[in-house]
């Protein structure tokens, strides 16, 4: 295939996303008021609690079997690597830009968590539907596209609502509270109280067996106190968010053969449950994309986020991570971790590094009531740039794979 033909194939799904986002943007305008702040909030809750879990559960239950999961084992590791590399680059960005403490969680979230849900679910099947796609017969390609995109959605949702949510919550609390110093002082005074006849110099220079035991106990107390602090800050109800729980349920249904036979298939006794979840799931992608467009409108109103932070996040998500993704996938192929002949699978793995930040980061800021305007500005500019960068990277991915 020529480079221009591949570019057109890559452009089509991105245009679909742009059009759907544009509609969400338009109906959120003050003159239209179909998706104003209150309506957006309610629709966001419906997506969070109903539609997104439905698409995660139904897609995985129908698409993933035990054999296919064994075949696709590298994808969860690949997604984990996108979070790891994104977090490392976020730390560097925070140090360079001297980001305020309360805003660091948002920077880490935007750099580490990509839109692994609705974008792959739209883009990968759309690429397969193009007659000139480099992945072979459109019908066969489309059959493979759904499990790839579904697994991406599920694994991304689990990591976003566990790792990213936990990080954002920790940094939000760190910016508003100052618990650690006082607790550290309390621990130190307790340690001194149990050593009335000794001092720090004596213990360090001439330790006795009883002194060593006391030091071990005090160190253990410090560890336990830190664990208590972290457990107070991490909300397990949010870590096990509806989408993450639904993904786990979908895995179990798809992989466990007896349960699968009960619920999946035209002759399954409980197929009505799966078909109902599938109907709800079909509404998830349009609604998520409409919300994305409405949230981008807030970014036009501006915020106090610095340009250096915005440019840094764009560079991480649109330049550095996609380049790293090529290296990861190529290395995995050379080491025999993924099948060299499965080009569509490799394309999806690379795409996971190139997508813009997850819109769930904006949802999390609504939970915390902190940094909503800043996140909207970041999302606005990253998605504007992604319209071009995602097309170019997708074209390049398909070109090197073809």
From TrEMBL:
<feature type="transmembrane region" description="Helical">
    <location>
        <begin position="147"/>
        <end position="165"/>
    </location>
</feature>
<feature type="transmembrane region" description="Helical">
    <location>
        <begin position="309"/>
        <end position="332"/>
    </location>
</feature>
<comment type="function">
    <text>Involved in cellular auxin homeostasis by regulating auxin metabolism. Regulates intracellular auxin accumulation at the endoplasmic reticulum and thus auxin availability for nuclear auxin signaling.</text>
</comment>
<dbReference type="GO" id="GO:0080162">
    <property type="term" value="P:endoplasmic reticulum to cytosol auxin transport"/>
</dbReference>
<keyword id="KW-0472">Membrane</keyword>
<keyword id="KW-0256">Endoplasmic reticulum</keyword>
<keyword id="KW-0812">Transmembrane</keyword>
<feature type="transmembrane region" description="Helical">
    <location>
        <begin position="239"/>
        <end position="257"/>
    </location>
</feature>
<keyword id="KW-1133">Transmembrane helix</keyword>
<feature type="transmembrane region" description="Helical">
    <location>
        <begin position="344"/>
        <end position="368"/>
    </location>
</feature>
<protein>
    <recommendedName>
        <fullName>Auxin efflux carrier</fullName>
    </recommendedName>
</protein>
<keyword id="KW-0927">Auxin signaling pathway</keyword>
<dbReference type="InterPro" id="IPR004776">
    <property type="entry name" value="Mem_transp_PIN-like"/>
</dbReference>
<feature type="transmembrane region" description="Helical">
    <location>
        <begin position="380"/>
        <end position="401"/>
    </location>
</feature>
<feature type="transmembrane region" description="Helical">
    <location>
        <begin position="106"/>
        <end position="127"/>
    </location>
</feature>
<feature type="transmembrane region" description="Helical">
    <location>
        <begin position="277"/>
        <end position="297"/>
    </location>
</feature>
<feature type="transmembrane region" description="Helical">
    <location>
        <begin position="6"/>
        <end position="29"/>
    </location>
</feature>
<comment type="similarity">
    <text>Belongs to the auxin efflux carrier (TC 2.A.69.2) family.</text>
</comment>
<keyword id="KW-0813">Transport</keyword>
<dbReference type="Pfam" id="PF03547">
    <property type="entry name" value="Mem_trans"/>
</dbReference>
<dbReference type="InterPro" id="IPR045033">
    <property type="entry name" value="PILS1/3/4/5/7"/>
</dbReference>
<feature type="transmembrane region" description="Helical">
    <location>
        <begin position="73"/>
        <end position="94"/>
    </location>
</feature>
<dbReference type="GO" id="GO:0005789">
    <property type="term" value="C:endoplasmic reticulum membrane"/>
</dbReference>
<dbReference type="GO" id="GO:0009734">
    <property type="term" value="P:auxin-activated signaling pathway"/>
</dbReference>
